[in-house]
Every structure is written in C-alpha cells, then in structure tokens.
Amino acid sequence: MKKEVNPKDTSRASAFDLWMTSPMPMVTLTKTFDVTHLKKVADKKGLKFNMLLCWCICKAAHKVDEFFLLPENGKLYQYDQLAINVIVNNKMGGISSCDIAFSENVEQFNQDYLHLTKKTAETSESRFLPEHMIIGTSALVQTEIDSIINQYTDKFVNPMVMWGKYRKHWFKTTLPISLQYHHVQMDGGQGSKFLELLQQEIRSF
Fold it and tell me: Where are the strands (E) in 42-94, listed by range?
C-alpha cells in the first residue's frame, strides 16, 4: 500500500527541505562485489544469476527503512511492500518493464520472475505495481562495466541498481554494481549500508 506522509514525521525531514527542489538530487554509489558464491549457486541449481541477484537486492533493501519512502511531485510517500523492476527484451525487438513483487521465499520469487518476464516478453506489454515501492534495475550483461550513471527524470525517481557482465578471476567472480537514489530518500550512510547488506546477502545466500 502507498500513502502520503508528512516529511516532518519521518527521518527525512531535513533532507526533504534541502533536496526536494534540487534540479539534480540523485546520488550514485558504485561498489565491486564478490559474487563468487552466488554464481556457484546459480550454476549448481540451474537458476538465473540475475534472478538471484534481484532477490538479494530486495532482501537487503528490506532491512533499510528508507527504501520504503519515496519523494514524488513535491510530496513524500511511504510503502509497505517492495518490488523490483527488470527490463525485458520483447518479441517486437524493443524492451518492456516488468515489476516483480518481493517474496522472502526465493523459490516463489523465482517462479514469479520466470513466469512474469516470459509473459512480458511474449506480450510486449509492461507490467507495473503502483502500490509497491519499486527498485529499478538495469542489467547490461553484454559487456563489463565499471560504473553506471542513469539519466535523471522526474518521471522516475525510484532507486536504481545497475550492473554489467560479471568478471571471472582465478578463484573468484566479481561484479561492479551501481546504486542511484534520490537524496530525499536517503543519505550516503543509508546507501552505503544497503551496499554492505547486499554483499552480506550475496555471500550468505
């Protein structure tokens, strides 16, 4: 569910006053992750690596309160559910958006991920969950990328998690991941906390 809240009643009161009217309020952090364990799980279980990474992203975000708050049109909204957006190559040769609700049960999330992304690809129709807090993703797996900075538009101010192709080394696999978020939603401390939690989820999956 989505509801409007008074910024003064939240931890983001000062940030709302400082950054709500800023023309460029987005912040981007990039961290190189050790994804060795997640890649091994994906290979052993026959699961999609990107699906597992999306689940870990949601699991980590669920532990950061600020991910449930989002500024929009000069107001602040609070959500009680998370979902993740993935970009799907559709049958028309273009791309479509697919929102997938987070489930603590990774098997359920995997089923939803496979079913919904396949349906989106086949129909070329985007799927949105407006009552969920959406975490955007962009996986550019055709090449290795050091960092990604997304466009800023007031049409989409949700946090974005972005990555390219993982990198294989002798004994481990690494992946630089970029996090972009609105400064009203969180500060560098919360953004850094999320990145640390994400590494923990990846290692302990």
Answer: 69-72, 75-79, 82-89
